[in-house]
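Convert to structure. Protein one:
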Amino acid sequence: MYSVEVNCFTGLENPQKTCNNFQLMHKNYQQVLALVFAVEEINQNPNLLPNITLGYHLYNTYHSDERTLESSLKWLSGQSQTMPNYSCRTHDKSVAVIGGATSTLSVQMGSLLELYKFPQITYGPFDPLLHDKVQFPSLYQMAPKDSFLSVGIVQLLLHFAWTWVGLTSTDDMRGEKFLWNTAEEMSRRNICVAFIEKIPVSERRQDDSHVAFMPRIIASSAKVIIIHGDADSLIILRHSQPLIFTSLKLWIITSDLDITLRARHFDSYAFHGALVFKHQTCEPPGFSDFLKSVNPVKYPADIFLKSFWHSTFNCSDEFAKLERGECLPNASLEDLPLEYFDMIMSSLSYSTYNAVYAVAWALHEMFLMRTEMGFERHGENFTLQPWQLHSFLRNIQFNNSAGDPVVLDEQRNPVAKYDIMNYLIFFKQNEIFVKVGQFIPKSLLNQNFTISENSIIWGISQPTVPESVCNESCGSGFKKLSCEGKPACCFDCVQCPEEEISNQKDMDHCMKCPEDKYPNEERNNCLPKNVAFFTFKESLGMTLTCIALSFSLLTVLILVIFVKFRDTPIVKANNRNLSYTLLISLTLCFLSSMFFIGQPTSATCLLQQTIFAIVFTVAVSSILAKTITVVLAFKATRPGSRMKRWVQPRVSNFIVFICSMIQVTLCGIWLATSPPFPGLDLHSEPGHIIIVCKIGSGIAFYGVLGYMGFLALGSFIVAFLARNLPDTFNEAKFITFSMLIFCSVWLSFIPAYQNPKGKAMMNAEIFCILASSGGLLGCIFLPKCYVILLRPDRNTLEYLKQKADSRSHSEILPGRQKFKKKF
C-alpha cells in the first residue's frame, strides 16, 4: 500500500531510520478489499470449507526490499519485535502467504518463506524466472502467462505503421526477456528499435535515475515509446519526466503498470492518450456492491482502511470520528476519482481473489481426503503443516464465481488476453480508460487483433495519428535504398529505373510492368501500350515511299529510253537483253521496299524477304553476267580464239537463270522449314507494341543474304579485273563502282540489323534496299543515258571507229619508238 523512498542503506543501521517520505498508494487498497471479499464469500459458502472459518493477516511491503523482509519476519515471529526462528503464535497458525505485487518482492519474500516450506501464491505479473521450481519450489503464480504480449504490441505497431520505436523496461530478468522477445518480434516484422533503456528496479536510485536514461528518451526521434515493468518502475519514470517533453511522445504501456498513480500534479497529462494493454478479467458478481458498502464503520479493526479513508477523504486527524461515522457519513469509494480508487477490479485484485479461492479449494480437498480416509472419525487431533498443502495446490483446478478456470500448475496456466485501453485525462484531472481494441492470442499463426482507430484520442500535441518513423516514407515511384551502418528502417529513397515501377509506399524493390504495358513518367503505374507499325502515314514512311516510287519511275524511264534507242551502239554494246533484265529487276527492287511499310500480315511477311532476295539476286546475277560477257568478248577478239562460241546471249541468260534458281531454291527451303511470320516487339519502343515480321529461321535469312553477297563479291572481283580492258563501251569500271557501293551498303547493314528493333530495323532494311539499288542504277545506267540523251554524237559507228583507230595508233606508236631505240 505504501511507496517509500530509501536513502543509502549499508546494512548497519536500522531500516526504519533510512526510510522516509512515505506515500500512500491508494489504489493498491483494492487488492486488500479483493482478499476480504473472497474470504467473506468463502466463509458464507456452506459447500466450501464447511465448519471452518478462514482468517487473514495483512502486512505492508512498502514496495521496498528492506521493509518486505521486515514484514515477513514480523509475520513469522507473530509480534512486532522480530525474532528469527521463533514464533509466539499458538492458536492461529497460518498455512499460506498471498503476496508479491512485483517479481522483486516475490523473490524477497520467497527466499525467506522457502526456509519453512510456506506456500507462497504471488498475485503479481507472471515472471518466467519464478517458474524455476528448483529455486522456488514453494512459489505459485496466479497471473496468466504474457507469452504473446510482444506479438500483440507489434500488431499494434504494424497497424499504425510505427517502424521507429523505443523500448523501456525494468532492469531485471523479466524485463530482459520482454526486451528480447519484443526486439526479436519487431525485427521479424521489419520494425526497428530506436533505443533500449532499462529502469532501475530499486527505488534507491530514484533521485538520479532520470540523469541516466530520460535525456536519451526525450532526445530520440522515436515518437512511440513502449514501457514494460511494474508499479515501482513507472513511479521512477514519472519522477523523471517533465510534462513539456513527455507529452510529445506516445506511450504504449503494458498491463502491469498503473499510470494513474501520479507522483505529483504538474505531470498529470504526461500519459494522456497512452495505449494500455490490460489483462482481460471477468469481475466476480457482487464485487462492485461490496466496494460500495466498505467504510471504517463496517470494518473498525482495519487500521489500513482508517488510514486510507483519512487520506482520501481529508478527514480529521482524530480517528475516533471515523469510528463514530462523523467523517463524511455518506462517503463511498465510488465517489473517489480514478487516481485514488478504481471501482473496476484490476488484474492484481483479480489474481488476489483467485489466490484466496485457490488456498480455500486446496484446504477443502485436503480435509475432504482426510474425511474419506477416516481420520476425522477417529477423533485424531490434526495440526496442519504448511508443507502439506503443496500437493493439493499443484493439482488444484476450479472455476471461480465469474466462470473463469483457475489452475496453479504453470504448465497449464492460460495465456493472457488483453484489452487495449486509451488512457484519457480531462479537465480537473478526471481520468478514464476507454476500450479501443483487444488482442486475444490463440496460437502463433492465429491471433484476434482488433483496434478502433476512430475511438482513440491521441496526446495533447498529437491531434491525429502520430508518425514514428526514422525518416519519411518513400512514395510510389521510388524504392528504399538501405544506408550503410544504419538500421533497416533508416533508408534513402531513389526513383525506380526506367522500365520499372513501384505502386506502394516503402517498397524494397521496384517491379517490371507486364509486357503489354509500360511505366508512366512518375513510375508508379503501368499504362497499356499502343499497338503500332511502320505506316505510310508517318513522315519517314511517306518519305521512303516517295523515294521508292521516284526511283522506280526513273528506272522505268531509263528502260523506255533503252528500248527506244535499242539499235544504237551504246545499247547494243553490252548485251541489251541483260540491260533490260537488270532494269526490270531494279524496278522490282525499288518496289519491294514497299512490302516493309504498312501493317505486317502473313502474306506480306512471306513476300518481304523472299521477293527482295530473288529480285536482288536477279539484278546481281545480271551484273555478273555482264562482267563475264565483257571478259569473254575481249578474249574472243584475239586471233584464233575459241571463246567466240561463249559470247552469245544464251550464255549470259543461262548464268542469270542458274544464279537466280539457286536463290529461289534457298528461299523455298526457308519458307518450307521456318518461314517469316508476324510478331510483336514489346521492348524496342517504350509505350508501344510494334507489329513486325519475324524472320523465322535466322540461318536461312543469313544464308540468303550470304548467297547474294557472294554473287555481289564475284561481280565486283570480275569487274575490277576487267576495268582496263580496251573496249569502247567497257562497263567494267562502272560496274566496279556500283558493286563497291552495293557491298559497302550491305556490309554495314548486317551489324546495324542486330541492334535496332521494331521500326528502326525496318527502316534500316528499306534504306539498304533503296541505297544499293540506287547505286546500281546510278553507276551503270546514268552515264549511258548521258551519252544517249546529251551526247548523241558519241553514240554512232563513225565515232566508235575514230575512237578505235586512235586507240590502235596510241598502242602502235610506243612500240615503234622502242624499235628505233634498239637500232
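Protein two, convert as well:
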Amino acid sequence: MRRIRNDRALFALLIGFVTLAALVLGTIWLSERQDRAARSVRHTLEVEARLSTVLSRVQEAEAGQRGYILTGRPRFLEPYEVALRNIDRDLADLEQAVADNPAQQARAAKLRLAVEGRRRLLRENLARFRIGQPATSFADEFERGRAAMDEVRGIVAEMKASEADLLRSRLEGAEARGAQLRVALVVAGVTVLLLGAFAFLNGRRRLLEAVVARDSLAEANARLVEESANREAAEAQVRQVQKMQAVGQLTGGIAHDFNNMLAIVIGSLDLAKRRLHRDLARAEACIDSALEGANRAAQLTARLLAFSRQQPLDPRVLDVNKLVGGMSEMLRRTIGENLRVETVLAGGLWRTFADPAQLESAIVNLCVNARDAMPDGGKLTIETTNAHLDDGYASQNDDVAPGQYVMISVSDTGMGMPPEVIERAFDPFYTTKGAGRGTGLGLSQVHGFVKQSHGHVKIYSEPGVGTTIKIYLPRRAGEEQAIDVQARPAGELPHAKDGEIVLVVEDDERVRHLSVDALRELGYTVVQASDAAQALTVLALQPRVDLLFTDVVMPDLDGRRLADRAREARPDLKVLYTTGYTRNAIVHNGMLDADVAFIAKPFTIEQIAQKVRQVLDAAPAQVARPEAGLV
C-alpha cells in the first residue's frame, strides 16, 4: 500500500514538473516573441529617423545653394557642401535599414534617383551662377528644383506612411505578447506554489516514514556490526593460519636445506676424524665435503638475506656491458657446453649504481635457471639496453618509479612458465624442479637484490616458447667514472709484507681464535682483543698497527665507534669490518656506508687473504670503496 501511495505521489510530482517545464518553455518563447516585436518597433522608428535625415540633408543643400545664389555670400555654401558630402552615406544607411522589406527597398531606390536628380540641378545652378549669370535668370531653374523637391518629399512621405502602418501592427503584436507573457507568468507562479505545497506535504509524509525506517535500520545495523566483528575475528584467524603456513613453509625449507648441509658437514667431519690416522687421502676428501656443505649453508644464508632485502650492498658506478662481457668464461663453466650463448650489448649504455658482486650473482642465477629450463639444449641470450619506464607502465606494476633504467635481460628457448608459476616464481623455496635440483631461492634472491637496489624485475614467459627475465636498475646520472670489474685473482694466496701487524677485535672467543689463526697462517703478526676497551689499550701500547680488523656488533662499544675512537689517535689507520648481522652501524638502508671496507661472516682463508691485502694495499683515499667480499 505504501509503495502504491509513493508511486502516485511521484507520478503527480512528475506531471506537475512537466507542466511547469512546459509553462517555463512557453514563457521563454513568449518573451522571445515580445523581444522580437520590440526590436521590430525600434527598427521602424530607426527607418523613420533615417528618412527624416535624408529629407533634411536635401533641404539643407537646397537652402544653402539658394542663399548663396541670392546673396553671393560664401557662408551659405557650407551647409550645402556638408549636405552633399553626407547624403550618400545617409542613403546607404537607409537602404541597409529597409533591406528586409522589398517594397521599401524599391521606394528607397526611387528616392535615391530623385535625390540624385535634385543634387544634379543644384550643381548646375551653382555652376551657371559662378560663370556670371544673374540671380534673376534662375526663376525657371528654381521651379524645376521645387518640382524635384516635391518628388523627394512625396517618396519620403510614402515610405513614412508604410513604416507607420508597420509600427501600428508591431505595437499591437507586442502588447498581445506582453499580455500572454503576464498570463503565463501568473500560471507558472500558481503551478510553483501548488507543486511546493504538494512537495512539502509529501516530504513530511516521507520524513515520518524515514524516521520509522531509521529505527529499523539502526536495529539492522547493530546486527551487522556484530556480524562484522565476528567476521573480522574469523578473518584474523584465517590470516594467522595463512601466516603460520607461510612461516612454516619458509622455516621448513630452511630447516630442510640446513639439515642436509649440516648432515654433510657433521658426517664428513666425523668420517675425517676417524680416517685421519689411517687414510689421509680419504680424510681430506671428507674435509673437502664438509667445506662444501658449509659453503652451501653460507650461500643459503646470503640468499635469505637477499630475499629479505637485508644483505649489505656495496654499490659502485658500473658499466654493465663490461661486467657482462667479463662473465663469459665463468658462464661457460657454469652452464656447460650444450647451450649456445649469445651476448647483445647496447652501444652508449648508461651507467648504473649497484653492487657488482651481487649483480653478477643475479645474472648467474638467471643463467642457471635458463640452463635448467633447456635440458636438451637451446639458446641463451644476455642483452643490455637503455630503457624508459613511463607513468603508464609504473601504474600497472607495483613499486616501480617512472624514469630511466639500465636493462639486463636473460632469455632462453626452454619450456617456459604458465601464469600460475610466474605468479609464485619469486616466492622463497618455491621451485618446479625435481628433488635435489634446486633450493627455490635463486629468483627470490634476484628479486630481493633488485628491489634493494631500487630497481625492478619482470618475467615474460610462454609455455613451450621460452622465458625472458628483465632486470631494470636505475640510471646513474653524472660524470663519475665506472669501475673496472675484474675477476678475482687465482693462484697463491696473498701474504703479509714487511711484518705487517693486524689487531683483531672479536667478542666471540672461538671466532676470534679462528681469525687470528687464519691471519697468522698468511704471515701477519696478530694481536687480539676481546672487546673495544682492550683494543684501545692495545692501540695505546702497540707502536705499530697496520690494520684494525673488528667485529661490528660488540657489547658496550660497537666496531664503528671503536674505529672512530682509534682514528682520532691514528688518522691513517686502516679498518676492515666483519659481521654476520647486517642491520648495524655500518649498513644503512641496505647499503654500506661510504667509508667502509667489509667482509661478511662466514669467510674462507682465501677470502680474508684477498680482502686484507686489498685494504692494506689501497691508497688512503681508496680504502672507503673496496670490493665487498660477501659469501
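The two ends are 81 Å apart (CA to CA). Residues 621-631 have pLDDT under 50 and may be disordered.
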